[in-house]
Amino acid sequence: MVARMHHSASPRKGRTGRPRSVETDHAILRATRAALVDLGWGRLTMSDVAARAGVAKTTLYRRWANKNELVVDAVAVLFDELELPDRGCLQSDIEGVVLQFGALLARPETKTALMAVVAESTTDEALRERIRSAIVDRQKRLVVLGRERAQQRGELPPDDTGPEGELAAAQAVGLIFDVIAGAIVHRTLVTAEPVDPAWAHQFSTVLLAGLRGLS
Amino acid sequence: MVARMHHSASPRKGRTGRPRSVETDHAILRATRAALVDLGWGRLTMSDVAARAGVAKTTLYRRWANKNELVVDAVAVLFDELELPDRGCLQSDIEGVVLQFGALLARPETKTALMAVVAESTTDEALRERIRSAIVDRQKRLVVLGRERAQQRGELPPDDTGPEGELAAAQAVGLIFDVIAGAIVHRTLVTAEPVDPAWAHQFSTVLLAGLRGLS
Amino acid sequence: MVARMHHSASPRKGRTGRPRSVETDHAILRATRAALVDLGWGRLTMSDVAARAGVAKTTLYRRWANKNELVVDAVAVLFDELELPDRGCLQSDIEGVVLQFGALLARPETKTALMAVVAESTTDEALRERIRSAIVDRQKRLVVLGRERAQQRGELPPDDTGPEGELAAAQAVGLIFDVIAGAIVHRTLVTAEPVDPAWAHQFSTVLLAGLRGLS
Amino acid sequence: MVARMHHSASPRKGRTGRPRSVETDHAILRATRAALVDLGWGRLTMSDVAARAGVAKTTLYRRWANKNELVVDAVAVLFDELELPDRGCLQSDIEGVVLQFGALLARPETKTALMAVVAESTTDEALRERIRSAIVDRQKRLVVLGRERAQQRGELPPDDTGPEGELAAAQAVGLIFDVIAGAIVHRTLVTAEPVDPAWAHQFSTVLLAGLRGLS
DNA sequence: CTTTAATCGAGACGGTACGTCCGGTCTTATG
DNA sequence: CATAAGACCGGACGTACCGTCTCGATTAAAG
């Protein structure tokens, strides 16, 4: 008899009892991000989040199974702000999104939380799945979109048609995403140096040359 | 009353009392890795490590300031196993080291620990420094070495001479390292798919094309 | 906005809206006793009682202010079963009622609940009053009745007439009640040995000798 | 693997590690009584006791399995203060000890706690045993002593010799203890009226007459 | 037959204590 | 001195229960 956890897509027709407050959800997520900024992942506590949100600890646990899942959701919405600017050419587009992503990772609430939940996810399959669906897969759209736009401009050759062409395209998207996201994360969190315009330019130059070499 | 912490290089002449057992160090680090394998970072406890090593908790804290630093050291030695094979051409060399790095990150003790300590390091300057010195900087040698070897073979142009040339070279090493390490980490931990020969080949193809585009 | 609480004797004319179900009251009290048997006072929960009674928690709290008051009422009705048998002589009458009382306190629902609510009553005046009116005072009738019957039989001297005589009689009733009820409760709950015929006989012998010494 | 709980009689020779502080034991028991006075059983919390004692909650749980056992021990020592005064005749002796017992039960720390733990003991065999050994059995000495003294004075007949005589004496002690303790507890906690000299006199008169009727 | 004002089941909610766990320090006795 | 053992403080964890609240759905009696 597993408790129903969070976010049933349907508006739960036929359900009885007092409905969950939707605003409470947002208040909790907001409070979580604020706590991340102030305290960082390591010192963030559920009690503190509850207090900031003006909510009982029970309410947190009724909606999220644990700290990790809460933090993933709290951070995930920030990633949805990313978008692919149309700056006229592929290199500029890449530089733009790299800078955005770098700026996002530089924010204390993402910096401290992202790697922590990824680390936990190595021993928690449910968490890994939540990260993938809430963050990773949602951002691959940027790569797909950039690729399409460049193909329309003629900067990249069109996809091969047919099933093996689609497979190759999907693999390419995965690889490129790993390279872009990985490099930015590594620079920000491990090397601990900023993703500034100069770096973004250098990186996108390398990447673009690499992409041309793919085909 | 600051405790003298760990690893004075000199055999500290003139000190009296019972000396620390060197074998104990290795036993603790071994126990730490074993605990990481069994429990993962999140569930690993100092008491458990102490018990596995047949040692008192006191002994741990006399040698490492806290859990994070212990784990960094326990994992760091694994990275020293990496080496750059000479397979005759740059692309093969890259593929070789990518596969090694991928295999290393696939091991449970690194997978679970690395991102965790990186996450902690965002709010712990001392820890960040220890990660850099114990892991990151030590592995940049691979990039430097591979670059030199490729230059000798004529696969890459020689560095510009003069101070601004050296600076550019250092920057390039940093960038390349972020790209390689970042991509592998991201594929392993976030995308959660294996770094196999096919991926290594595709990745090194892109990277090599990118490198040629750098100059 | 004080809620109207429970058991207005009058059928409250002039009120509209759906009336409370009377059967629900009994179902709840029955469920409470069942829960006491199964769980004991300490582990009994309001949710559990509600579930057993097939009723919402709200319904409980609409009728009783809190757990303590509910339990007092649930247990109180059991005490009304006590009666003074006419066995022909005072000593036999006492033995009879002692055995009845002993049997009642041996039942798990009273055993576990009675002392608990008494304990709570030390810091809850309303609860103490409810216990007194629902249980204690109602059972003093047994002492009064037995006394009268014995006086009619000539086993005890008649009360002194006049105000000071009545006072003395009331005091005597109080004392005797404390002795009887106290001894049985203590034997059952503290000494934890049964109130069997042998003990009842010995006790009533002592008590009767004591009573004769009173006058 | 049950943890060793509290008060091994032996001074535990051959044990290693930091020994438990004995003073801490007393500080905790003192704090518990203070909390009982201020808050009563129902509102007393382990955290509060720990804070009052200047001790971590862990330390409490290392020594007592739960709140109930702690409170029993905290209250038990108070009962050891009771003693049988030698006032020259049995009735006076009884009155003296009744008043003492009444005064003890009137204290907030005993009043609120005693019945609560007795109530819990109905569903907790270990607790019942602890109450018996820590409180009940220790106070039976008063009955035994008073009886002996009265026999020496010739106020009561000597015990029958022989095994059945001893059994009868033991039973009598049990009965008398139930009557005395029960009556005082009932008057104090249920009837909620004071055990004053007048009541003590009346009660002891009845009791004494009853005792004479026993033989 | 509608209106009205309550009751009812379900369950979310704020609050608070529970008993457990762990990090890191301190105190013993023994090398 | 180092060491093993384990007590200790502090504080977060996730659970449980109390008593309140908010829903939508009933249900009797009054109009």
UniProtKB/TrEMBL annotation, chains A, B, C, D:
<dbReference type="Pfam" id="PF00440">
    <property type="entry name" value="TetR_N"/>
</dbReference>
<dbReference type="GO" id="GO:0003700">
    <property type="term" value="F:DNA-binding transcription factor activity"/>
</dbReference>
<dbReference type="InterPro" id="IPR036271">
    <property type="entry name" value="Tet_transcr_reg_TetR-rel_C_sf"/>
</dbReference>
<feature type="DNA-binding region" description="H-T-H motif">
    <location>
        <begin position="45"/>
        <end position="64"/>
    </location>
</feature>
<keyword id="KW-0238">DNA-binding</keyword>
<feature type="domain" description="HTH tetR-type">
    <location>
        <begin position="22"/>
        <end position="82"/>
    </location>
</feature>
<keyword id="KW-0805">Transcription regulation</keyword>
<protein>
    <submittedName>
        <fullName>TetR/AcrR family transcriptional regulator</fullName>
    </submittedName>
</protein>
<feature type="region of interest" description="Disordered">
    <location>
        <begin position="1"/>
        <end position="24"/>
    </location>
</feature>
<dbReference type="GO" id="GO:0000976">
    <property type="term" value="F:transcription cis-regulatory region binding"/>
</dbReference>
<dbReference type="InterPro" id="IPR011075">
    <property type="entry name" value="TetR_C"/>
</dbReference>
<dbReference type="Pfam" id="PF16859">
    <property type="entry name" value="TetR_C_11"/>
</dbReference>
<keyword id="KW-0804">Transcription</keyword>
<feature type="compositionally biased region" description="Basic residues">
    <location>
        <begin position="1"/>
        <end position="18"/>
    </location>
</feature>
<dbReference type="InterPro" id="IPR009057">
    <property type="entry name" value="Homeodomain-like_sf"/>
</dbReference>
<dbReference type="InterPro" id="IPR050109">
    <property type="entry name" value="HTH-type_TetR-like_transc_reg"/>
</dbReference>
<dbReference type="InterPro" id="IPR001647">
    <property type="entry name" value="HTH_TetR"/>
</dbReference>
